[in-house]
Predict the 3D structure of the following.
Amino acid sequence: MVLEASAAVEIAKHVLVSFGFILAIGTLTGLLAQKIGVPDVAVFLIAGMLVGPEVFGLINIKADSALNQLILLFGASYILFDGGASLRLNVLKQVWITILIISTVGVVITAAITALAAHYILGAPLMVALLLGAALASTDPATLVPIFRQVHIRDRVAQTVMSESAFNDAMGAIVTFGVLAVAMGKGDFSLSASLLDLAKQSLIGIAAGASLGYLAALLIAHEKYSFLAEYGPVVTLMAVIAAYFAADGLQASGFMAVFVFGIMLGNKESFGFKMDEGEARKLEDYVMTTAFIMRLCIFILLGAQVDFKLMNQYLVGGIAVVAVFMLVARPVTVFLCATPDRRARWSLNELLFMCWTRETGVIPAALAGLLLGVKAPGAEMIASVTFIAILMTILIQATTTKWLGRRLGLLEEGARASAEST
């Protein structure tokens, strides 16, 4: 018993020291990102690669450890909640058709084009190439939400890209698992069954998020029933966890549920709820701080877990595939899915910006890890190219978001003036 207790204490100390390192490094690199004017997720990723076991070895938290999974699960959920809370229903009403199409059909288009590139460039069997395309096809909310928190792009463009990233994870997972079943000889792909599963996941996720979002708004902002107004931050923590697991327990998208929960709480005034100004400010400050901590934890850990040896196996071919993924698959997806939406009346500059903004991060990394875990065909190649995609999209696309927004005239006025002065 004494030995077991001692071992547990040592593990706890190791976790605490690692977490302290992550917070210290994240604070310093966050300040650096602010000074040089780039989204902090890119700097966090580089810092994670430097302090990870492949370089200096200051942090060594395994990708399959319970601590890592806890940080990824809760961190991504809370960042999604924060993103949902920043959206406005009147803007979403204008662009919902684009969001619906690009989050569903768009995932399939991206997966198909990326799979063809992998098949011809890497010589991968078609089924393995399709697995890679499916794993990479969904955009990453944990990356995109923080970027648009820091780079103030025209509302409807930013909210479309953030909403796409929240809603397409379910479609990406469904396509991946459908292809995986065929690749491992465990079943045949059924379009009708997949569409039914997508509809079920979406509707249940939206219902769970909307219900808990309304309840949270009632308890912290209702004129008569807001007896938890002073505990708004705690209510958000409980509700984010509850929304995720309520949807997950019903085999629906937990990420979709927390995103919708955020939309409901962020638009509580539309439902007749209004918080005291002081309590509202306290809640906003808490959410921003918590989201920052989750962001630095996620991306420093993601960088620390990049496997350079695995990545080097397919480096040249992987870079070529990701280049097609970024420069061909994404533009084709955006133009095919957004152009038919006459109601939104997208300008060419808005479409070009959306073509460039589709960072890869936590969700594809998790899917690649899952494929490695089940020993799927070509899993090592898929993981290698996924690492390359994460590095290329975050380090290239995220760091050029403000520059491109300024060039295309999509920066909001305050942000534009700031960008022009730097």
